[in-house]
Write a structure and sequence with these properties.
This protein is of the alpha+beta class and about 130 residues long. It has one domain: Roll (Nuclear Transport Factor 2, Chain: A), CATH 3.10.450. About 30% of the residues lie in helices and about 40% in strands. The chain contains four helices and six strands; from the N terminus they run H-H-E-E-H-E-E-E-E-H. A six-stranded mixed beta sheet has the order 2-1-6-5-4-3. It starts with a helix and ends in a 6-residue tail after the last helix. This is Limonene-1,2-epoxide hydrolase domain-containing protein. Pfam families: LEH.
């Protein structure tokens, strides 16, 4: 049985995943604490709004759309685990369907303090994704 806090955290992460379809830093950065850490494995971790925003911004001009399909989601207190397929559709006609496991840690205010993404870089590159 999930606690009220766990259900709130699941709802926040579901909303965050849905808001990727807006393709904008303005839609996504408010979910994070100012000093949040985003570790998009296998790349180096990013800390804070500026670093996270600088990493995300170049994608918006390349994308027609992005959809996070949450297949499974679970909570253990402040930690939320997602199993997803992320669908990238690029303006150049390319498409990329990437299986991802994401782990989120939320604070008492419901902001993301840590976000770790696990996926296969070889699969990303094979499908045409930028190498870094």
């Amino acid at each position: 049985m999930q606690s009220t806090l766990e259900q709130r955290n699941i709802d926040i992460v579901r909303n965050f995943c849905a808001d990727w379809s807006k393709c904008s830093n303005q839609a996504l950065l408010p979910y994070f604490t100012e000093d949040a850490v985003y570790h998009n494995m296998p790349w180096a971790p990013l800390k804070g709004h500026q670093a996270i925003g600088d990493f995300l911004a170049p994608f918006w001009s390349m994308l027609d759309s992005i959809t996070f399909d949450v297949l499974n989601i679970a909570a253990n207190g402040a930690v939320i685990f997602t199993e997803r397929v992320d669908y990238f559709r690029f303006k150049n006609g390319g498409k990329l369907d990437l299986p991802v496991n994401g782990v989120f840690e939320l604070n008492a205010e419901g902001k993301i303090t840590q976000w770790r993404e696990y996926w296969d870089l070889a699969d990303w590159i094979k499908q045409g994704g930028p190498a870094g």
